[in-house]
Amino acid sequence: MERWKVPSENIVYADTEGNIGEHSTGLAPLRQNWTGLLPVPGAAGYEWAGYVPNSELPHSFNPAAGFVATANHKMIPEKYSYSVGFEWAAPYRFHRIEEVLSRARDGNRRITLQDMAKLQTDVVSLPARELLKLLRAASAKQTNAVAQLLLRWDGTLSRDLAAGAVYEVWLRQVRKAVAQKAKVAEHVGDWSLEKVLEQLSAAPADVFGANPIAGRNQLLLETLDAARKEMRQLQGPNPQKWSWGRLHKVRFRHSLDQAPGNAQLLDLGPLARPGDGYTVNATSFEGGSFQQEAGASYREILDTSDWDRSLAVNTPGQSGQPGSPHYSDLLPLWDKGQYFPLLYSREAVERGAKDRLLLNPP
């Protein structure tokens, strides 16, 4: 890791003897009298004094938890000596990984390749679980079909479920309403989901009124009713025909698809998708559209005890040539959470080879 300079990454590793670890890498400037968060004068006194030594960057080796995991969340200890960053992904994806791996550890169950494949494509939403707890407290006497639809749901954002669609539309309404009540909407626009859920859980009086619990419950029920009306506009009056996948799709657009006739030849999709930006299988979207804009284009699962048992998947295919049979043949595997063998040894590669390209120099 000493030679790793850019980009900054959280590297997880394992060896053939069962050791595991994690190391944050990259060049982190040493700023002696400022943090790097805000601009400073260009005058003398604010120069960098080198870089944080690699050995002092956050790292762990064979941690007591029995596993290492990273999901773009904050991994820096609270009393860390250096300022190396200020903005991190919400911790929900990491906490879900932690939940699954801790359950296996506490049950003395050995994790398999199939377990890891299932975890990489997991679409359980921890924010949904938090919001559903608050809804249960707010709607004990609610009998309308949409509220009951959510209350019977376990928070799994499957593409074919109506509850997932209702939740995502409702969540957008909730985030907007809480930001307006907290009087931050005009300053920061969209408030982070983490902050919104913190406000809902704490229910401060300066946000929700003299009876903050009642005020919070009223906000949740009013926004849920607004979500119900929006879902009727988006997918019709029958909740049994609603689904998250009808709203949440991915389309693979080629950079040259604007030329006449190219879109049909080069673009792929749309495909209905599960999950969202806060599930382990991250399928992020932004703004007013539910269209997936980011996510894992490549996945791999490595077995250090037998490298030839490793698995991987790319998308949409290994070839960038539209006429090739391998232009999009991996897209169905990727979409279904499936993998192909990632062979390492010469013997295994030769057994699995379909074609051989031999380059002879002149």
Characterization of the model:
- The structure is a single chain.
- The chain is an alpha+beta fold.
- Helices cover 35% and strands 12% of the residues.
- The chain has 13 helices and twelve strands.
- The strands form five sheets. Strands 1-2-5 form a three-stranded antiparallel β-sheet, with no helix packed on it. A three-stranded antiparallel β-sheet has the order 10-11-12.
- It has three domains: 9-120, Glutamine Phosphoribosylpyrophosphate, subunit 1, domain 1 (4-Layer Sandwich), CATH 3.60.20.10; 126-246, Orthogonal Bundle (Penicillin amidase (Acylase) alpha subunit, N-terminal domain), CATH 1.10.1400.10; 297-362, no CATH class.
- The longest helix has 24 residues, at 212-235.
- Helix 3 crosses helix 9.
- The protein has helices at 92-106, 113-120, 126-138, 145-151, 162-181, 185-188, 193-202, 205-208, 212-235, 244-247, 262-266, 331-336, 346-352, and strands at residues 9-14, 20-25, 29-31, 48-51, 59-61, 249-252, 268-272, 283-284, 294-295, 298-301, 311-314, 340-341.
- The mean pLDDT is 93.
Topology:
Layout: E1 9-14, E2 20-25, E3 29-31, E4 48-51, E5 59-61, H1 92-106, H2 113-120, H3 126-138, H4 145-151, H5 162-181, H6 185-188, H7 193-202, H8 205-208, H9 212-235, H10 244-247, E6 249-252, H11 262-266, E7 268-272, E8 283-284, E9 294-295, E10 298-301, E11 311-314, H12 331-336, E12 340-341, H13 346-352
Antiparallel strand pairs: 1-2, 2-5, 3-4, 6-7, 8-9, 10-11, 11-12
Helix pairs in contact: 3-7, 3-9, 5-7, 5-9
